[in-house]
């Protein structure tokens, strides 16, 4: 299998929001443990109806991020379509609130919805390997017709790498505001970013923020979202959403809401 090897730009300095590997102790490689590969009926569950928005949305985000590592099943009190397996993957040092609105709207349409909690101090390649294993295990438990992944920021790097590891599964992989070209701190402890080719049954779609509006990227000389990969589509998000700046975190709401047909104004 041909590999596309990508060397990080030496000028990239990520010091903001979820991508700041320099803010903590750096990324350290850890082995996948059997504890993280649970069977589907053991996953913890979070009822989306109990996650408030508005002034309480950040509290709800913390509640989501306090879930144990692995897949977290997201439920509602309504019945929905269970033929599609959806997994949402957060970014580096995520506070969780950026996912609340979009996940609640997804939960109104889909019955097999999961949030993937992982240790962001691990390297993306091993996180992607674990994620792909979990997806394939879950797919064996039910006759899912399709898999949809949403990965934001560092999570976007993870799902882009996982795209080649899920085989011939029919899947759409949404990469949102992700520094696919690399960032400082990552390759200090991890291998250079590499993306294998994925099956023709897997569509990888990239959603890029406007660099000048993205608090994680706007101070950089180059846009780390720009990369030469065989995307099915590349979408540039608008600079505003509902009259406010559409930045790094609110890109999640835009993409997830657009997926279920909930339009936002510019």
Q: List the total number of helices.
A: 6
Number of strands: 12
Give the amount of beta strand, in percent: 15-25%
CATH architecture: 3-Layer(aba) Sandwich
Q: Determine the CATH superfamily.
A: Alpha/Beta hydrolase fold, catalytic domain
Runs in which pLDDT lies below 50 for 5 or more consecutive residues are 1-18, 20-40
Could you tell me the CATH topology label. Rossmann fold
Specify the helix fraction band: 10-25%
What overall geometry do the principal axes of the alpha carbons give?
globular
For the biggest sheet, the summary is: 8 strands, mixed
Structural class: alpha/beta
The N- and C-terminal alpha carbons lie at a distance of: 42 Å
Write the layout of secondary structure elements.
Blueprint: E1 3-5, E2 45-47, H1 57-65, E3 70-75, E4 81-89, H2 97-107, E5 110-117, H3 124-141, E6 146-152, H4 154-162, E7 171-176, H5 186-189, E8 194-196, E9 202-208, E10 233-236, E11 240-241, E12 244-245, H6 251-259
Parallel strand pairs: 2-3, 4-5, 4-6, 6-7, 7-9, 9-10
Antiparallel strand pairs: 1-8, 3-5, 11-12
What does the model show?
The chain has one domain (3-26, 35-259): Alpha/Beta hydrolase fold, catalytic domain (Rossmann fold). The protein is of the alpha/beta class. It contains six helices and twelve strands.
């Amino acid at each position: 299998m041909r590999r596309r090897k990508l060397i990080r730009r030496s000028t990239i300095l990520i010091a903001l929001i979820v991508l700041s590997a320099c803010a903590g102790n750096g990324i350290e490689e850890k082995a996948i443990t059997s504890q993280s590969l649970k069977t589907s009926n053991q996953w913890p569950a979070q009822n989306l109806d109990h996650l408030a928005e508005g002034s309480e949305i950040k509290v709800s985000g913390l509640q989501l991020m306090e879930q144990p590592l692995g897949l977290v099943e997201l439920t509602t009190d309504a019945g929905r379509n269970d033929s599609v397996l959806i997994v949402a993957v957060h970014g580096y040092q995520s506070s969780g609130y950026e996912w609340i609105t979009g996940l609640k709207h997804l939960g109104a349409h889909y019955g097999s919805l999961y949030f993937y909690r992982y240790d962001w101090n691990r390297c993306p390649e091993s996180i992607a390997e674990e994620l792909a294993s979990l997806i394939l295990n879950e797919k064996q438990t039910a006759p899912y017709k399709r898999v949809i992944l949403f990965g934001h920021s560092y999570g976007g790097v993870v799902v882009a790498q996982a795209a080649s590891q899920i085989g011939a599964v029919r899947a759409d992989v949404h990469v949102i505001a992700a520094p696919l070209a690399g960032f400082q701190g990552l390759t200090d402890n991890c291998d250079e970013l590499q993306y294998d080719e994925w099956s023709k049954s897997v569509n990888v779609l990239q959603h890029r923020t406007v660099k000048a509006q993205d608090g994680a990227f706007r101070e950089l000389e180059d846009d780390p979202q720009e990369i030469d990969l065989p995307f099915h589509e590349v979408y540039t998000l608008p600079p505003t959403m509902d009259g406010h700046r559409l930045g790094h975190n609110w890109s999640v709401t835009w993409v997830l809401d657009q997926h279920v047909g909930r339009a936002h104004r510019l």
